[in-house]
Design a protein that fits this description.
405 residues, alpha/beta, two-stranded antiparallel ribbon, 18 helices, 11 strands, globular, disordered N terminus
């Protein structure tokens, strides 16, 4: 049972998950997508390979269909993107003409890039609906000069657009004008929305709010991983988005349901997965979905029956060794103080007070002020995360790699 979950919730949640099993089976037959390895740790395929989130999916769909723009907050790698895409998948089943657009703005640095990412996501959606739809889009946005290409891995057609910085505000208004003229319901998810707080331009929140509220056929999900920034945007009285949305949180998957999901795939290949070993994996990675999925992906590839700690450790070391070059490059970009602090946190696992004299002396760290500066940078870079019990290295494989140096 996951911490903080009411005892009465798990039977209800599990029964709803089990009731959804037939849908997952039928979906696998309908899509004809049979993955060699069912444990997807990047991207989203379809509900067959998506664990649980039945309650959350229903809640998010209900919000969107009833005109409630939603703020979705959770740490990274817990499964926000998967939940959004699973909800969009089912929305398209329920509303055949629905338009669902997902855009991740984590790497954007200013308003121009935000508008460009949003415009590209809309254009990519239109491209999937045929040449006539694309022609209408290009007629509406006469200044857009799309660049067409092909995804090197899937072979699917791709498109991107570029926007002049001086035209970003005008183009943003045009995008919302275009959405309002659609005869369809439009669902838009903007992931890592807290990134807008870092833009050099002022007023982007007010600008977006002024457009969002006047497009009745468009409904939004604003998701983010930095709780304090997302809370400031949507819960502060002086901010434009105050009281304009409903809030959803996302906790790690329930261990019992996650184990059932795992066990079924191993049994389907006439194998097995010990519940005790799954518990070890779940606890060791703190319920973080992406890390556990990566472990399950590796174990499914190499093992038929998983029942020993040695198998778990072998999978961990394989993943850590595969990532060692990436980790070396990442650490080399940090200052000596930041590196030392990361290694100290990794060795302790979870640190309640990294600025305490005892912690600083034990690991021969610099002054309290230097530790605070380094900690702020590591948190901002999403390398260190603050939990209810203390600070951790959020990438558990990176933490293991650091302890082995």
């Amino acid at each position: 049972m996951h911490r903080g979950t009411p005892v009465t919730e798990i039977p209800s949640r599990k029964s709803r998950y089990n009731n959804n099993a037939k849908y997952r089976t039928d979906m696998a037959k309908k899509t004809n997508i049979q993955l060699k390895n069912p444990f997807v740790y990047q991207g989203y395929v379809n509900p067959t390979y998506f664990c649980d989130r039945v309650v959350e999916t229903e809640e998010l769909i209900g919000n969107l269909q009833n005109g409630r723009n939603t703020v979705l907050i959770s740490p990274r790698r817990i499964g926000k993107t998967g939940l959004i895409k699973n909800s969009f998948y089912k929305l398209k089943e329920m509303e055949k003409d629905a338009i669902c657009i997902y855009v991740d703005i984590f790497s954007t640095k200013n308003q121009q890039e935000f508008v460009q990412y949003l415009g590209t996501a809309i254009t990519q959606d239109v491209l999937s609906r045929g040449q006539k739809a694309m022609k209408r889009l290009l007629q509406f946005f006469g200044s857009w000069r799309p660049v067409f290409g092909q995804d090197p891995y899937t072979g699917s057609p791709t498109v991107s657009i570029s926007i002049e910085p001086s035209q970003s505000a005008v183009t943003l208004k045009s995008i919302f004008d275009y959405l309002s003229l659609s005869n369809h319901q439009v669902y838009i998810a903007i992931d890592e929305f807290q990134q807008v707080t870092k833009y050099p331009e002022t007023g982007i929140e007010a600008l977006l709010r002024s457009y969002v509220q006047f497009v009745p056929n468009a409904h939004f999900v604003f998701s983010g991983s930095k709780r304090h920034l997302m809370t400031q945007i949507f819960n502060s009285e002086e901010r434009p988005f105050y009281q304009s949305t409903v809030l959803m949180g996302l906790e790690p998957l329930h261990e019992e349901i996650y184990y059932d999901f795992t066990r079924r795939f191993f049994e389907a290949k006439k194998g097995s997965f010990s519940q005790e070993m799954f518990h070890q994996v779940y606890q060791r990675f703190g319920g973080v979905t992406r890390s556990i999925q990566l472990m399950l992906n590796r174990l499914y590839e190499t093992e038929k029956h998983v029942g020993s700690e040695a198998q778990i450790n072998e999978a961990i070391l394989h993943i850590v060794n595969q990532s060692s070059m990436q980790y070396e490059e990442l650490i080399n970009l940090l200052t000596d103080n930041q590196q030392s602090l990361m290694k100290a946190i990794a060795k302790d696992g979870c640190v309640a007070s990294p600025q305490s004299d005892e912690f600083i002396k034990r690991y021969n760290l610099p002054s309290t002020s230097s530790v605070k500066t380094a900690l702020d940078v590591l948190i901002d870079k999403d390398l260190v995360y603050r939990t209810s019990t203390g600070y951790i290295i959020y990438d558990h494989f990176l933490s293991i790699w650091l302890t082995r140096q």
